[in-house]
Specification:
Length: 110
């Protein structure tokens, strides 16, 4: 599954979003001009941020912060979980690699 929040309306934020996958990969695309906090947990698997593995194994958790320049940047908090598989977080300035999954809309991810 994919959660691409890069084109969400900054005026409507701040956002508090949850996304989860039972088995497989959850790809989260965050906008580089937002302040984004991702609270990622994986039952068994790995967490990758911008192409770098930051955690792997069983019952892994990682709090990742992406800060935009300037204090007026919108805020988004994402609670992401995968039971078995991988959470991959990329920024809009980083090319996406791998399988493309259908993106979740704000209504589907809430």
């Amino acid at each position: 599954a994919a959660l691409d929040v890069a084109d969400w309306d900054a005026e409507a934020g701040p956002y508090d979003v949850s996304a989860s996958v039972g088995v497989g990969e959850l790809v989260i695309t965050v906008p580089e001009d937002w302040n984004v906090i991702v609270d990622a947990t994986v039952g068994l698997g790995s967490i990758r941020s911008e192409g770098v593995q930051v955690a792997d194994g069983g019952d892994v958790a990682q709090l990742l912060t992406f800060e935009a320049e300037g204090s007026a940047a919108p805020l988004m908090r994402i609670d992401a979980s995968v039971d078995l598989g991988e959470i991959r977080i990329i920024t809009t300035d980083q090319p996406s690699v791998g399988n493309q999954s259908p993106a979740l809309t704000p209504e589907e991810s809430a």
